[in-house]
Amino acid sequence: MRSLVLIGHGSHLNGESAGAVYRYAELIRERGLFDEVVEGYWKEEPSLRQVLKTTASTDVTVIPMFISEGYFTETVIPREMGLGHQGPVPPEGVARVLGGKTVRYTLPYGVHSSMADVILERAREALPDLGDEGTPPTALVVLGHGTTRNENSNRVVYENAERLRHTGLFSEVEALFLDEDPKVGLWPERVRAPRVVVVPFFASEGWHTLETIPEDMGLTGAVTVFPQNPHGTQTVYYARPVGTHARIAEVILQLAEEARGTGGRGGDEDRLHAQAWAAFMTMARRGMRVGEVMITPQLGMFEVRHALDEGIPGGDLTTTVTPEGLRDHTRRDEGGHHRPVHTLRNLPRGWRAVLSETDLPRAMHALYPAIVEEGYAHQQHALRATPWATTARRQTGIYAKVQKATPEQVEHVAEDVCSGCLRTRLWASEQLPRTFFDGVPGAIPCAEACTYLVAEVREEVSGKRGSGSGH
Ligand code: SF4
Fold first, then answer.
1. Ligand 1 near 418 CB (within 6 A)
2. How many angstroms separate the Cα of 299 from the Cα of each of 278, 296, 354, 357, 422?
3. pLDDT in tens, 25-74
4. Which residue's alpha carbon is at the smallest distance from atom 4 of ligand 1?
């Protein structure tokens, strides 16, 4: 049995941020090579602290869905997942045994050697006659973000440029950057060929690929002609970012295989995880309420809906029949705002999901990530709470300043944020004698302050927290 975990950054504000990770998880799930594909996030749920608990097997491969190495892949993810590793990840990855699971943490997908092929495919999409006989000389610009803080994050752009130099398809290949020398604005002096194909080495389409790069390069669309450049007339073909190419799913699978090496048959079923879900399914078959929803068994299927929609004819609600559909219906509150913390009491109404017994666990995982595993562990007296001081001490970078928060400041923010959340703060010594496993729908433990609360405490310490602040 094998589990694959894809780790994304996520966002407290932007509901689209997790979209690429969702899509790759779905593509890989369809291939059926892993028993499960689970997503985890820094700023959404399941969080990096929770995600290993949500895996069903004892053989877990963790892939950071980042385009390059850097602060998140080397510091934040290993720290938050408790991998006992900090700093550059070796090419063979990091392997640890954590809580009875063998966990293999790989380099981010963007540094895999097959990314050169993805760059080439993007270049061909932008310029289909690339490499044809009789076509004019063509230059390739591999365009990275660049940062002076971490040289590892730029190395991958240079390495790919070097690999593509050897293909013989380009008269010249340049690595240029947005935020670092050599800067992309210098391209007319550096690049001589009459045709130039520019491939952004970026994870997703966004502000940089849609605005900053075109602005810095003077591009007006997918094809731009520059009649008076220092080396004569040049035509620039602007490709789409590499990170959104469907081939990334292949890169992820290759990385996962390489991480496994000769890892044998895989792991076993995780015992606590299996017990938690068996207990949950027993209750679901009888009909139950959990959080803000009710689950009703119907002819071998399960209907999930908002408990306040009880009694409304099914035809008056929007029906979905997949876990992904349920996830998408509940990603935003009724005002259309992103819900980074799923247990906040703002679940929208007006939908119902009709699901098979196989799909119900995945749907519940999308609706309320990690509550079954943590709720069951708490009921079994096996959930360990992490006090605020420990969470604060662990923070680095811009969040290190939460260490300065006074207990009164933390409590003030928690009163505001956590009062809207179903969870009970075990990390602040609140008591939760019973859980939804004992028939109390809203009784869900919170073992550790979430990153949303940490971000709000940071705003409080910075004196920037006003009504409606968020991240
Ligand atoms: Fe909910 Fe507060 Fe726990 Fe975050 S820290 S999950 S808002 S109870």
1. yes
2. 19, 10, 11, 11, 30
3. 998 998 888 999 999 999 999 999 999 999 999 999 999 999 989 889 99
4. 450
Cα maximum dimension of the chain: 77
Q: What class is the 3-111+247-269 domain?
A: alpha beta
Ligand 1 centroid distance, CA of 340 (Å): 11
CB of 341 closer than 6 angstroms to any ligand 1 atom? yes
Helix (H) or strand (E) segment spanning residue 320: strand 318-320
**Strand 36-41 relative to strand 3-8, pairing:** parallel
Q: Which of 186, 184, 179, 189 is nearest to 199 (CA)?
A: 184
Report the separation in Å between the CA atom of 445 and the middle of ligand 1, taken as the mean of its atom positions.
9
Q: Is the ipTM of this complex over 0.95?
A: yes
Domain boundaries, the chain: 3-111+247-269, 115-244, 272-369, 383-461
Rounded CA-CA distance 151/160 in Å is: 15
